[in-house]
């Protein structure tokens, strides 16, 4: 897709009351937002509307991605535990008074290492997948068009490599120096702890971390629109980072504030979603706890109550995680649209794109 992503640039139009008593009609709203520069509340509310109206493709794709990742991590851990079962038995023996052999500990660590690496990879790919999915959904939600699971899966999958590259580059640029500081400073911290080195090295490490944190935050916000750019405009990772920096220029604090608010709302909403699941689980467990007396065998009701509690807890965690991961990305995608409407006059092109196909004489009525 070109730089305009099918949305040609036009001079910005004004809506609402004008000086001299004139009145211009309010902007159209075919989808979740009015097609004009947005306020903060309109972006926050528009993301809620998009999540509510397009929850099927959103939840479906996110569950598919998380399900595949869960299976991969579980398989790696099971294979590792099975391959080093004897070492696991020695290390985690409950009735053993002697410390575990260092060779067994190393074997257990190496057996779990592939699972940990796969978990990190799954988290990275999952983040990129959500970063590709939400802009694809917003692209339809802004125009009020329908979106199916198949369409969103195909669209997000096609843009996943570019979004993954943009996310990875952002992490390396913003977080790479911090990792390097920790890698250099960790030995200094150990040496300062055991007294073999002066504490000045530890003090310098803390200063370096504190000095880099605002720089990392500035870079992260500067490139925060890159996933949306990679989807909307179909740019490659490096070009998406440059484009994001151009869109954020002059609006860094606005982008930062809206993004922080979006993640705060996502966390609060996820917690609110999780509470009813935990409440139901406690209700299922409470009667069984009343029936169990001291010294009695574990009753069947207790086992059932524990199972229901664990299931409710897991279900609440999954559902809340879907909202916590997806909602902020929807807001950031709307923030991208808002920046383009403010700075590039995108609104008229969106209005044109939202209109049904024009009727051509001799071809019958346009499709509804």
In short:
By secondary structure, the protein is mainly alpha-helical.
Explained architecture:
The protein is mainly alpha-helical and 368 residues long. It has one domain (29-352). It contains 11 helices and 2 strands; from the N terminus they run E-E-H-H-H-H-H-H-H-H-H-H-H. The chain has a two-stranded antiparallel sheet with strand order 1-2. Helix 3 packs across helix 4 (102-141) and helix 4 (102-141) crosses helix 7 (226-232). It starts with 15 loop residues before the first strand and ends in a 14-residue tail after the last helix. 29% of the residues are buried.
> Largest beta sheet: what is the strand line-up?
1-2
- Count of the domains: 1
* Uncertain stretches of 5 or more adjacent residues: 8-21, 358-368
Distance between the termini: 26 Å
Question: What gross morphology would you assign?
Answer: globular
Structural class: mainly alpha
Question: Any idea what the radius of gyration is?
Answer: 26 Å
Work out the helix count. Answer: 11
| Major β-sheet annotation | 2 strands, antiparallel
How do the SSEs run, as a string of H and E? EEHHHHHHHHHHH
Helix content: over 70%
Chain-averaged pLDDT: 81
Q: Give the strand content.
A: under 5%
Q: What is the strand tally? A: 2
């Amino acid at each position: 897709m070109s730089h305009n992503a099918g949305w040609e640039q036009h001079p910005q139009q004004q809506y609402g009351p004008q000086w001299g008593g004139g009145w211009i009609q309010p902007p159209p709203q075919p989808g979740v937002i009015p097609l004009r520069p947005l306020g903060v509340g309109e972006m926050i509310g528009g993301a809620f509307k998009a999540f509510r109206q397009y929850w099927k493709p959103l939840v479906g794709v996110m569950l598919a991605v998380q399900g595949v990742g869960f299976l991969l991590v579980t398989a790696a851990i099971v294979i590792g535990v099975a391959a080093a079962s004897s070492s696991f038995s020695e290390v985690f023996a409950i009735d053993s008074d002697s410390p575990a052999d260092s060779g067994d500990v190393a074997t257990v660590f190496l057996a779990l290492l592939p699972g940990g690496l796969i978990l990190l990879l799954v988290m990275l790919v999952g983040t990129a997948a959500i970063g590709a999915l939400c802009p694809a959904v917003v692209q339809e939600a802004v125009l009020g068009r329908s979106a199916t699971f198949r369409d969103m899966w195909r669209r997000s999958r096609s843009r996943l490599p570019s979004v993954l590259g943009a996310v990875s580059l952002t992490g390396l640029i913003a977080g790479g120096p911090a990792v390097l500081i920790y890698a250099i400073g960790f030995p200094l911290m150990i040496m300062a702890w055991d007294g073999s080195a002066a504490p000045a090295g530890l003090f310098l490490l803390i200063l370096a971390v504190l000095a880099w944190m605002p720089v990392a935050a500035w870079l992260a916000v500067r490139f925060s629109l890159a996933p949306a750019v990679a989807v909307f405009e179909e740019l490659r990772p490096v070009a998406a980072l440059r484009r994001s920096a151009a869109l954020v220029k002059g609006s860094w604090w606005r982008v930062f504030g809206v993004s922080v608010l979006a993640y705060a709302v996502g966390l609060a909403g996820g917690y609110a979603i999780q509470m009813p699941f935990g409440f139901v689980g406690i209700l299922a467990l409470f009667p069984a706890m009343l029936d169990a007396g001291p010294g009695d065998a574990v009753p069947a009701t207790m086992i059932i109550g524990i199972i229901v509690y664990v299931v409710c807890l897991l279900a609440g965690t999954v559902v809340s995680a879907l909202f916590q991961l997806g909602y902020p990305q929807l807001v950031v995608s709307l923030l991208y649209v808002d920046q383009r409407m403010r700075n590039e006059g995108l609104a008229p092109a969106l209005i044109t794109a939202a209109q049904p196909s024009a009727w051509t004489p001799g071809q019958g009525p346009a499709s509804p």
